[in-house]
Every structure is written in C-alpha cells, then in structure tokens.
C-alpha cells in the first residue's frame, strides 16, 4: 500500500485525527517518494539476506546428510507498523532517525531443526565478509520472562545501487520449529484483546509452561540426534557470536 492509500484508509476509519502518531503520517505523506525509495532499499537488503540463506541451504544439502535450515521467511514492515513503532521509539520525524532507532524494518526468519543448528547457521552467515553484526540478542540461552526463545541478529547488508553502495539494517531471527510454533501462538494471544482478564492470565501461565516443555523437547530431540550420529555436535553450543561484532 502506498502512503496516499494509507492516509485515505485512516481517514475513512476516522483514525487519522485521533492517532497520537499523526506527525509521522503527515511527514510520510509530505515525503512520499523518499519513503517509497527507503522501503525499496530495505526490500532489496531483505532479498540479499534471504538469498544468502538460500545459498547456504543449497550448500548444506550438498555437503551434509540433511540441511539444518527448514524454512526461510521474509517480511517488510507495513506502514501501520512503521508509524506505530516510530511513535513508540520516540523517533524524530526524519528518515535518518527512523533508520537509526528502528532496526527491524526488514526481517528474515530462519527456522532450523535443532537448537545447535541455529548457532551453526548464524555462524556461517556471519562469516561472510560483507555482513556486519550490529547487535545480538540470544533469547535461547536467556529466554524472555514470557518464555519466548529465539536468536536475534541485527546486521547490515550491502545493496548496490546505480551510483552507490548502501549498508542497510536487517533483523534476522533464528528459531527451531517448536520455538516458531510457540511464538506464533503467543502472538495470536497478545492481540486477543476481548479475552477476560482471568482467562488471559491463565493462558499466559499455560504458554510459559508450554515454552519450558517445548525447550525441553528441543534438547531431548537434539540429544537423540547426537547419539544417532555418534555423539558429535555440529557446533559448540557456547559459540560466542559477539566475535563478529
């Protein structure tokens, strides 16, 4: 959706005048062409990162008995989400500040079979000399209080334009199948605003228990695989991804 369609939709729904983040909407409307250009740059960076994981996946399939990568997904933030997050992060009404404060405008999600596969894939990705690691948040070793587990990497990926090269930020999330299933369910619960408070609280507790159970299942399945393969590990679980920063 382009910015003009977005503004028209908000006006039809009578949200436009009420939104506390309307300064960003006005800024985006005034700088429509620059916004479209910026989002195109992010889309290009997202495609570059996605291609790198697809190439890794192809190599894994050639050199290993199985590929540690199950699926690769990509997404670009919607204008709704960009406006809301710009307001939430108190970004100034400038594209420079928005780019600086919002690091997940372009996103890649890589689903792996086992926890140790996540670190293997991340390590192979970060070894590429045109990838720069900006930040790493390991929610597998340090889960969020609600039970969320995933490895988050903020990287820069170069894109080559007609007259210049630009480094664009991309967020990479790496999860197991179980982590992704849990996160999807938790996301749906978060936006079920009509649930009574007591039911919501009970479901939050159940989700936390499910997160612990699924993490235990991930490790048990990983240990079974290690035994099948003779006790070998694809990568040290304690790998320090900070070495790439």
Q: Considering DSSP H and I runs of 4 or more, what fraction of the residues is helical? A: 40-55%
Overall mean pLDDT stands at 86
Structural class, by secondary structure, is alpha+beta
Count of discrete alpha- or pi-helical segments spanning 4 or more residues = 8
Strand order of the largest sheet: 1-2-5-4-3
Number of DSSP strand runs? 5
* Sheet with the most strands, sense and barrel status: 5 strands, mixed
Strand content: 15-25%
The shape, in one word, is: flat
Order of helices and strands: HHHEHHEHEEEHH
Q: Low-confidence segments, ≥5 residues, pLDDT <50?
A: 14-20
Distance between the termini: 36 Å
Radius of gyration over all CA atoms, rounded = 20 Å
Helices and strands in order, then pairings?
Elements: H1 3-12, H2 22-30, H3 32-63, E1 69-76, H4 79-88, H5 95-101, E2 106-112, H6 115-126, E3 132-138, E4 151-160, E5 165-176, H7 177-190, H8 197-228
Parallel strand pairs: 2-5
Antiparallel strand pairs: 1-2, 3-4, 4-5
Write up this protein:
The protein has 245 residues and is α+β, with helices and mostly antiparallel strands. Helix content is 51%, strand content 18%. The chain is built from 8 helices and 5 strands, in the order αααβααβαβββαα. It has helices at residues 3-12, 22-30, 32-63, 79-88, 95-101, 115-126, 177-190, 197-228; strands spanning 69-76, 106-112, 132-138, 151-160, 165-176.
Compact overview of the structure:
This protein is an alpha+beta fold and about 240 residues long. The chain has helices at about 5-10, 20-30, 30-65, 80-90, 95-100, 115-125, 175-190, 195-230, and strands spanning about 70-75, 105-110, 130-140, 150-160, 165-175.
């Amino acid at each position: 959706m382009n910015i003009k369609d977005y503004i028209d939709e908000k006006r039809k729904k009578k949200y436009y005048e009420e939104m506390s983040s309307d300064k960003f909407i006005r800024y985006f409307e005034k700088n429509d062409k620059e916004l479209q250009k910026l989002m195109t740059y992010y889309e290009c960076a997202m495609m570059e990162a996605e291609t790198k994981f697809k190439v890794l996946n192809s190599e894994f399939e050639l050199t290993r008995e199985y590929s540690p990568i199950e699926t690769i997904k990509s997404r670009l933030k919607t204008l709704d989400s960009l406006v809301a997050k710009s307001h939430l992060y108190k970004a100034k009404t400038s594209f420079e500040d928005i780019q600086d404060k919002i690091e997940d405008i372009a996103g890649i999600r890589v689903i792996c079979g086992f926890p140790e596969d996540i670190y293997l894939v991340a390590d192979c990705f970060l070894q590429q000399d045109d990838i720069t690691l900006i930040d790493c948040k390991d929610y597998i070793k340090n889960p969020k209080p609600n039970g969320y587990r995933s490895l988050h990497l903020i990287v820069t990926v170069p894109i080559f334009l007609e007259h210049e090269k630009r480094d664009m930020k991309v967020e990479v999330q790496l999860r197991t199948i179980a982590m992704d299933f849990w996160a999807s369910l938790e996301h749906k619960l978060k936006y079920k605003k009509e649930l009574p408070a007591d039911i919501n609280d009970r479901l939050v507790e159940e989700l936390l228990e499910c997160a612990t159970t699924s993490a235990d299942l991930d490790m048990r399945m990983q240990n079974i695989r290690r035994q099948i393969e003779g006790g070998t590990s694809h990568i040290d679980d304690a790998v320090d991804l900070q070495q790439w920063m």
